[in-house]
UniProtKB/TrEMBL annotation:
The lineage of its organism: Bacteria, Pseudomonadati, Planctomycetota, Planctomycetia, Pirellulales. One of its GO terms (molecular function) is oxidoreductase activity, acting on paired donors, with oxidation of a pair of donors resulting in the reduction of molecular oxygen to two molecules of water. Residues 28-64 are annotated as: Disordered. Keywords: Fatty acid biosynthesis, Fatty acid metabolism, Iron, Lipid biosynthesis, Lipid metabolism, Membrane, Oxidoreductase, Transmembrane, Transmembrane helix. It comes from Roseiconus nitratireducens. Belongs to the fatty acid desaturase type 2 family. GO terms for cellular component: membrane. The keyword Cell membrane does not apply. This is Acyl-CoA desaturase. InterPro entries: Acyl-CoA_DS, FA_desaturase_dom. It is found in: Membrane. The chain crosses the membrane at residues 78-99, 105-125, 222-245, 251-270.
Amino acid sequence: MESTAAPAPNRFERGIVIMANVVESLPNPPSQPVAPDAEELRGGVGSPQTAPNSTKAPQGQTNPELGTAAQRKRFSNLSWWAIGWLGLAHLVVICVAPFTFTLAGLAVAVVLHWLTGSIGICLGYHRLLTHSGMKTSTWFKYVLAGVGSLAGEGTPLDWVADHRKHHKHSDQDGDPHSPHDGGWWSHMFWLAFHTHNGDRDAYLQRWVPDLYKLRGMRIMDYLFLPIHLLSGVILFGAGYLFGGVELGTSLLVWGLFVRLVFVLHATWMVNSASHIWGYKNYETTDDSRNNWLVAIVAYGEGWHNNHHAHPRMAKHGHKWWEFDITWQAIRLFRKLGLVWDVVDYRTAAEKKAREQQPTSAA
C-alpha cells in the first residue's frame, strides 16, 4: 500500500502555516509533571481496549484522580458556563425556532449540521485530534479544529481530554459519561459538572499533553465564544442581505441554535445510546455497542463497539453494511492530498499483510 506524500502548499496555505508557526514559537507555560505517553492516550494501533486504568485506591476508598460521577456531583464543581451556554441554546430552540422557520433556514441548518458535526467533530476533534487516525498539514488541522469549535461542544483541548479519559476508563470509575451512572447523566447531565475537578491545567496536561503544548490550541480556548458570535453575525447578515430581517432572523436561529442543539444531541447519543443498545462485533471490557440509528444521526460514530475495539482506526464501519459517511469524507480528503497516512487497518500485522499483497500476487 503506497503512502501519499504531502502536497506542496499554495500561497494561502503557506500564509496559515507561517501564522501557526509564529504562534507555536512563542514561549510555552512552565513545565508540569510528566504525563502519560501520548500514543497510549490516543489508543495505539493493534491494542483493542482490554482493561481500565490500573490506578486504584485502597479498598473502600475512591481515588480522587479518577474524578468519578459521585465526586463531581457537588455544587462547587458546577460548570455555570456550560449550564448557561447549553441552557440558552435549548431555550432559543424551544421558544423562538418554531416562529422563525423558513425553508432556507432549514437548509442552512442541515448543511451546517453536516459540516460541524461530521467534518468538525467526528473527523476533526475525534478521529484526528483525539486518536491521530491520520496525518495532515498544520493549516488544515487548525481549520478542522475551528470547524469543530463551531459545533458548540467545547474547545478542542477540553473535548479531546474528556474523550481520551472516556477511553481509558470506559464504563468504569472515572468515565466522564458512563450510563452506569445513569442514562441521562451519560447523555447530557455530566456536562453540568467540571471534569477537571478544579485544576484544568493539570487535567489537560494529564490527558492532552501533545495538544496542550501547542500554543495555537490553547489560544482556541479564547476564540470559542468569538467565533460563535461571528458566525451568528454572518448568518444574520447573509439572511438580511437577501431577505431582510425575517430571513436574517431565521438563518440565525436555525443555522446557529437549532443546528447546534441537534448536533449536540447526536453526539451525546454516542455517549449514551451506543453504550446501552446495539450489537457487538468485538469483545471489549466496556458496554460499547454498534447502533445503526446513532450511526445515521452521528455520521458513522454509532459503530461504537468497532471504535472502542480499535480506537485509532479512522474507518468506523467494519462490516459491509456499516456505512460511515465521515469515512467517505476522509477518503475524499486523502485523494485531494489534505490527509495522508490514514489508519484504515486494525493492527500493524493487517497493514503489513495488505502492503505485501501486490508483491505476493506478482
